[in-house]
Automatic annotation (TrEMBL):
<dbReference type="InterPro" id="IPR036291">
    <property type="entry name" value="NAD(P)-bd_dom_sf"/>
</dbReference>
<feature type="transmembrane region" description="Helical">
    <location>
        <begin position="136"/>
        <end position="158"/>
    </location>
</feature>
<dbReference type="GO" id="GO:0005739">
    <property type="term" value="C:mitochondrion"/>
</dbReference>
<protein>
    <submittedName>
        <fullName>Uncharacterized LOC102289633</fullName>
    </submittedName>
</protein>
<keyword id="KW-0472">Membrane</keyword>
<dbReference type="Pfam" id="PF00106">
    <property type="entry name" value="adh_short"/>
</dbReference>
<dbReference type="InterPro" id="IPR002347">
    <property type="entry name" value="SDR_fam"/>
</dbReference>
<dbReference type="GO" id="GO:0006635">
    <property type="term" value="P:fatty acid beta-oxidation"/>
</dbReference>
<keyword id="KW-0560">Oxidoreductase</keyword>
<feature type="transmembrane region" description="Helical">
    <location>
        <begin position="111"/>
        <end position="130"/>
    </location>
</feature>
<keyword id="KW-1133">Transmembrane helix</keyword>
<dbReference type="GO" id="GO:0008670">
    <property type="term" value="F:2,4-dienoyl-CoA reductase (NADPH) activity"/>
</dbReference>
<keyword id="KW-0812">Transmembrane</keyword>
Length: 229
């Protein structure tokens, strides 16, 4: 199947990580669909992608955060695009720093755990996750670590529970910051480079149940592109 016959649903595609992936996929000739709760984010995404690829981008305002609303968004999506051949998920959020655990409520903990588990639960195919689940990034980010750890554990469980699903199921674990070109810091990944590398992973379709760990920008080439050849 050629890229132009494939329709990729990019969950979280209006976000920082997701927008780079959407652009990378469109530049490779894929058709891409993005669901976001926020129409202004979708407008921003439309003006961000390469102008000559805009016709291949379908945007839908919807919420995949509840089963009922996700079903509505799915129906709206299928009506627009007919079929979905691939899914990539970068759902979640960029940052949480509410303070040390004893200053937070149980409600906050439940919310974070539910959100992070849900990010994996809604989909399995290709996920962007973060290394925050293995260490405290800085004081006050403890619940982020707990939530991110649940995402990593859930991905692990899916790989073990579904060893032979007919779809390719891969995880890209990003152990560093991701930024747009105007907000780069040392060691961060440019979301455009990350998007290009994830698009190449999706394009090749030759690997399943793998975890691709990215610790620094150089890993995009050595881990995602070359290991995946
Ligand atoms: N940014 C980094 O430095 C970095 C580094 C390593 C790993 N990661 C991981 O990459 C993932 C994405 O991060 P990001 O920086 O791209 O975050 P982001 O810019 O906040 O984008 C997150 C996306 O998730 C969606 N989302 C969040 N909560 C939702 C909800 N309740 N219902 C429906 N959609 C929801 C948002 O959809 P809407 O468009 O509807 O708002 C948004 O498009 C996270 O899991 C993060 O841990 C990020």
């Amino acid at each position: 199947m050629s890229n132009s016959d494939r329709v990729v649903l990019a969950l979280g595609g209006a976000g920082k990580v997701g927008s780079g992936i959407v652009k990378g996929l469109l530049d490779k000739g894929f058709k891409v669909a993005v669901i976001s709760r926020d129409s202004s984010r979708l407008e921003k995404l439309r003006s961000f992608v390469s102008p000559n690829t805009k016709d291949n981008l379908t945007t839908i305002v919807g919420n995949v955060g509840s089963e009922e609303e996700a079903e509505q968004a799915k129906q709206a999506l299928l009506k627009e695009v007919g079929k979905v051949t691939d899914i990539v998920s970068s759902l979640g959020f960029s940052w949480w720093q509410g303070g040390p655990p004893h200053t937070q409520s149980l409600k906050d903990l439940h919310w974070l755990l539910a959100l992070h588990s849900w990010c994996v639960y809604v989909v399995f195919c290709c996920f962007a996750t973060g290394g925050a689940g293995e260490k405290l990034l800085m004081p006050g980010t403890g619940f982020l670590t707990v939530g991110a750890a649940s995402t990593l554990a859930f991905c692990h469980v899916l790989r073990e529970e579904y060893p032979e699903v007919p779809c390719k199921l891969n995880q890209v674990k990003i152990n560093t910051g991701v930024a747009t070109p105007d907000h780069m810091a040392p060691g961060f990944l440019n979301h455009l480079d990350l998007g290009e590398a994830v698009a190449a992973l999706i394009e090749r379709r030759n690997t399943a149940h793998n975890v691709f760990t990215i610790n620094c920008p150089a890993d995009l080439k050595s881990v995602l592109l070359e290991r995946n050849l």
